[in-house]
Each structure stands twice: as structure tokens, then as C-alpha cells.
């Protein structure tokens, strides 16, 4: 039997990139899927990639519309009997200096990247606790571990995820709930093209490091392996993931290195 045979896996941000790759990977392991993102047409395209034998439910939503999320969660639980794995993958990035970034952009990123996943999590907690099982898989970033230039708002939203879900992990462990924090480095997706500039407009540029990053399907396989092993935290990418160790063991060296990142 596959590792996720028959489990209900709900993935946000499933219309492209890591989310799309995760949908295909979970489907290949026999999981039942609920796929969410804003673009219904792209979700249906991803659902078709999962194969005719896969059980896939398409549920468009906007993580920034917080008041709508509890109803979406209740609908999924009612139709499927509960969620086994909730993959919080949806989000947006940012490319701008802090001094050039409006508070409205800060707020947008916090709503979508942090408060949206928190709202869905709180809506799912009662049903997971009553069943005595449930796994939250939170796609953060290496900048959820440390901040870097041009990503202040994005880093803040990802740091917030770590604080919330680390606390939740401790609180709910004895009720059978698990949390895996996923910290990708450079993954070959459109994350930089879709990132917000300081004024809220689309950045529209592919970062060279992202363009040379790990393929999304390879990233997805590594994430599934970590989820199956119920790992607490996993770093996915190339050599850039070693920055976590440098930051922890040699913080002064790391501080000097990160100051050299180009900001213009």
C-alpha cells in the first residue's frame, strides 16, 4: 500500500509550482485530494494531471478572504468526513526594500501567507481532534528561518507561521496532531514573477537563482518523504539550504554574508 493511500489531502496554492507538483505526487500515492487556489481553470488543469483514477475535488478560494475560510473548511469536512493532511502551500512573495514597501503590501502578505492558513487550521482543529489524527504541512521558506534583503514583508509572514505552528505542535501533539514545517530554498517556480513590488504591483521578473533552482517535482517528492516520516522541519533545495547551519553556528559570518546580497 502507498504511504498516503485513501487519505484526504487538502492543498492550497495547488494551481501551479510546488502545490501542483504536490497534487500530482500525492495522487500517485493513492491520496484523495481537495485542490484550492484562486484560479478554478488552473485547478481543473492540475486535477486532470492527477489522472482519471484519482479522486480530486476542486475548491477555488482566496486565502486573503478570511471570513470565507471557516465555511470552506466546514464544507470539506462535511463532504469528505475529515481532512488527514492539510497542506498550507498558498501564498505570495515580495521583492522590494523595506523602506519602499507600503504597509498595505505588508498587510496583504500577512493576511494571505499567515492569517489565511491560521484561519483554516483553527476551523479544522475540532474535527481533527475528535478523530485523534491530522497532519498540518506548512510550506514556509528559508526566509522563514532568517531574513534577507528585498523580502522583509515575506520573511515576516513566514516567521509568523513558524511561531504559530511550533506552538500548535506542542499543544496538540498528545491529541494525535502533527506539524511539518517545509522550508524551500530556490525552487523553479513563478514565485518571483508573481511577487509583489513595494507598491503592490507584480514584480514580473524571474530571479536567476530561482530559474536555476530545484525542479518542483523533486521538491514534492522530498516533501512527501518528510510528511510520511512526520518530520518536524525539513529544508528543501540546493546549497542555499546550508545557510541555515551557517546562521545558527556562525551568526556573525552569516550577518556579513547576507549584507552582500544585491539590492539594486
Descriptive report:
By secondary structure, the chain is of the alpha/beta class. The protein has one domain: NAD(P)-binding Rossmann-like Domain (Rossmann fold), CATH 3.40.50. Helix content is 44%, strand content 13%. It contains 9 helices and 7 strands. It has a 7-stranded parallel beta sheet, with helices on both faces. Strand 4, helix 4 and strand 5 form a beta-alpha-beta unit. Helix 1 packs across helix 7, helix 3 runs parallel beside helix 4 and helix 8 packs across helix 9. The longest helix is centred in the middle third of the chain and has 29 residues. The protein is globular. The relative contact order is 0.14. The mean pLDDT is 96.
Helix content: 40-55%
Mean pLDDT equals 96
Would you identify the regions where 5 or more consecutive residues have pLDDT less than 50?
Answer: none
Which structural class is indicated by helix and strand composition? alpha/beta
User: Going by CATH, what is the homologous superfamily?
Assistant: NAD(P)-binding Rossmann-like Domain
Number of strands: 7
CATH fold naming: Rossmann fold
Order of helices and strands: EHEHEHEHEHEHHEHH
Radius of gyration based on Cα positions: 18 Å
**CATH class assignment:** Alpha Beta
Distance between the termini: 51 Å
Total of domains: 1
CATH architecture: 3-Layer(aba) Sandwich
The neighbouring-strand order within the major sheet is: 3-2-1-4-5-6-7
SSE topology sketch:
Elements (H helix, E strand, L loop, with lengths): L7 E5 L4 H12 L3 E5 L3 H10 L6 E3 L10 H12 L4 E4 L14 H29 L2 E6 L12 H21 L4 E8 L23 H4 L4 H13 L4 E4 L6 H7 L1 H8 L6
Parallel strand pairs: 1-2, 1-4, 2-3, 4-5, 5-6, 6-7
